[in-house]
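Sequence only, no structure available. Ideas?
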Amino acid sequence: MSGKGTAPGRGALYGVLGAWFGLTVVGQKLYRDQRKQTIWDKLYLVIPDWRFFAPNPGIHDHHLLMRDQLADGSLTAFREIGGVQERTLLHAVWHPHRRAEKTVFDSVAELLRYVGQHGEGLNGPDPSLQLSVPYLTLLSYVTSREHHPDAVRTQFLIAVSGGYEEEDEPTMVFLSELHAVGAAAKGRAS
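Reply:
I predicted one. Tokens follow.
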């Protein structure tokens, strides 16, 4: 087999891949108006759109906290759960707990998006909120955690903070209803 027949084919392949790379670089717009359609929107089926943390980068850290209501009606202090583990070099290869962290993070983000879309009605939050997948996912996660021995109900809170921005105080953005746990939850289900 001679090398002459493969040179034009290889040159054409390099040309196609080079053009594709060039269009990819040119097509990266850092700030896009999602309301305006452009020719690039149709080309993104074949031209990659590589915007890191797209389309909106995260600027806050989400925190999931929980507290229990005891049999005497008192409430425990809120405690943070589901925090992100400190990363090690091994986590680049093996990090099985990352899926749980990601599930909690995505559920918090989706619940906040749901609340933003449905908002608060005249009689409080949308009643369908407690039946939404992100709410039920977080509730399941919270109720599966270790609770105070006298706990009869539990509640979760979502707060946001500036992360490493220490002057940015954490802000409460969502507070769930109280839900039965342990023996109280089993008694209700029967």
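The longest strand covers residues 151-161.
Hope that gets you unstuck.
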